[in-house]
Write a structure and sequence with these properties.
Layout (H helix, E strand, L loop, with lengths): L11 H29 L4 E2 L2 H21 L10 H22 L7 E2 H22 L2 H7 L5 H19 L3 H22 L4
Parallel strand pairs: 1-2
Helix pairs in contact: 1-2, 1-3, 2-3, 2-7, 3-4, 3-5, 4-6, 6-7
Length: 194
């Protein structure tokens, strides 16, 4: 079906970006609301600093996902497959953000216990989400994407796969630091301007 536009109508990208923005907005809202809820209940929280680093990392990634979508504004033809592939990343980001701040029934909220209880779900969704992030480029251009983008995402997939199978606390503490630093560098090198 051909998209036709009259003056004042939305472009295909504007139309598509509405749902993408809503899902990313839910991810950010969920993460921030969960952080505020934890602060309100701070006396009933056993804090775990790797979880706090992951919350900062996810906030950066949630914003980066929304920010990077603007580069697709010039795509002349959109297919449902391309749109759906692009939607998988915000959906994954929402799930990851929600897992970080999900509140258990028992009190106090032991963030370390919750981190390791949700570890496999978190890193499994992480692997799926990062792998899905390659799909839009593959569908549109037939290529994986920018070489630095491919290298960083591939490294994240390997690290997340290791996190899936390892319950070693020292590894997970190091991973939280490395991922935050990698995320900052990734955004600065590839997404500082659009």
């Amino acid at each position: 079906m051909e998209w036709t536009s009259n003056a004042g109508d939305m472009t295909p990208f504007e139309h598509i970006s509405v749902l993408l923005s809503i899902v990313v907005g839910f991810a950010i809202t969920t993460l921030l609301a969960g952080a505020v809820r934890l602060i309100h209940r701070r006396n009933a929280v056993v804090w775990y600093w790797p979880t706090l680093l992951w919350m900062i990392t996810m906030l950066l990634l949630d914003v980066q996902i929304w920010w990077s979508r603007f580069s697709w504004r010039t795509l002349p033809t959109w297919t449902f497959a391309t749109f759906f592939a692009m939607l998988l990343v915000p959906i994954g980001a929402f799930a990851l953000s929600a897992l970080l701040v999900a509140e258990p029934d028992e009190k106090p909220i032991d963030q370390r216990k919750e981190y390791f209880a949700r570890r496999q779900a978190f890193f499994g969704i992480g692997v799926f989400t990062i792998a899905a992030s390659f799909l839009p480029d593959l569908l549109v251009t037939g290529h994986w994407g920018h070489p630095l983008d491919v290298a960083v995402k591939s490294t994240w997939i390997v690290l997340d796969c290791l996190a899936l199978v390892s319950a070693n606390e020292r590894f997970h503490k190091g991973l939280a630091i490395v991922t935050l630093l990698m995320t900052g560098a990734y955004i600065a090198l590839l997404f500082a301007a659009i």
